Amino acid sequence: MERVPVLKIGDILLVSIQIDMEDQVALQLQEDLAERIVATGVHGVIIDISALDIVDSFVGRTLATIAAVSRVLDAETVVVGMRPAVAITLVELGLSLPGIRTALNVELGIALLGKRDVGDEPADDEDEDDPAAVTTS
Amino acid sequence: MNEESQRLPVVTDQDVVRVRQLVRTVAVAVKLSLVDQTKLVTAASELARNTLVYGGGGEVEVTRVHNERRGGIRIVFADQGPGIVDLQLALTDGYTTGGGLGLGLSGARRLVDEFEIDTEVGKGTTITVVKWCR
Amino acid sequence: MPLSPDEAGRFADLLSGHAEPMVARWTELVAANLRGRLSSAELGRQTADLQRAFQQAFAAGATDLGDEAAAELRAQLTELSNHRARQGFTATETAVSVYALKDAALEALGDAANLKDYVAFSGFVDRAALFTFDSYVRVRESLIADQAEQLLELSTPVVKLWEGVVAVPLVGTLDSARAQVVMERLLQTLVDTGSPYAIIDITGVPAVDTQVAQHILKTVVAARLMGADCIISGIRPQIAQTIVALGIEFGDIATKASLADALRHVLHKTGQRSPGAKRTER
Fold it and tell me: Domain residues for A42?
């Protein structure tokens, strides 16, 4: 079974999903991430899904679980790079990925995490002021 | 009316991935728009997983179809599982017996142009979906 | 009912024997119908071509329009309807161009015609006219589809308004297909430019119904999933009334009266200076 690599960059774990994951691989990633967060003590996780041509409800649920678990472990998760066609499909599917922060690309995701670290707001705050952090830089 | 059909068994996780890839290939071949490809592959992924998880495995058949005006794809998901007791309920957003998000059936239905479900308790379930080119 | 090979042969002889008077009469009949919108020289040429195609089809033993021997004739008929459709002639005017052959043939034959032959011949011409009619409709349909597509291309620009801010000024009626194109293009532009803010300006949209509102809402939700924020601007008083009357919930989506207000709102959120002020930093 393939495994999705998890990279540590500074205070962030970076995951770039490059394969069409079977369900077991997604679950494995969920476990790996929780372990790496604890082992490394990072406060941010970025999951790059720009290579995924679909996100179905299983992957969506896995992402939500990863975000929730990392939050318990004091790390903020940002999902970045969702393709427009994927976003449109998710809306039609009725999947809104509650509690997941998103950014357009890895750079904006990192900026978002940088801003987050200072504040201590609840993560499922609906009013998104976040993208703001990026345009000023 | 139809051209070649391709069949795949759905018995393992990897089979669900294979179904996605086959549907993607055929969707590209009939020239569905990118968004429609994505919708169809997502729907296929949901339904193939249902076949595996709830139906205990089964078979998927992907066929290119045509009517007078346009081309499209028909996908049939068939299992010999326990069937669906309350179809109305199963098609409701958020309802699940399998611990999922409860969007599989209802969500997949919104992603395709035609959706037909044929189920009998104790006999199995067959779901047929069609997506047409715009 | 297909012709007998025998009959086909007789028609071939007949058409070649009376070629000139027949073409002349045929052209005259068609010209009366088109009321001078095609020059008689051009019409004469078309008719002569068609007459030759009919003659050759029969000579080659075509007993039905679908025959291999009638391939050239079918091509000619398609060409004719193509031509007529693009020049804006009606379907009747196009079909009559073929039907007129029957009258021309009858007159050219005079009393020499045998009734049974003529009926068979007439049936063949009818099928040719129907074929012309069909391809006329096909051409018109593809013309309409092309125009609709061109309209979509024309009417959905996505512009970069400011660093990190893109805008779509929507103009005209939004139907499902157009709304979808707008939605896709806007979202793609967000990715391409890395802009976390989008302003959807509906100043130029005459009416908003439930469906259009749904499309806008879906766009906003999709943009959020991707990590971008949408602001809707240019909501005119009567549209605001409709939105409330229809019970459409815009929820927590930011709405502003004008594009300028929307831009100011975004710049305020990002902590940038508004367009009027001097930028001191970088």
Answer: 6-135
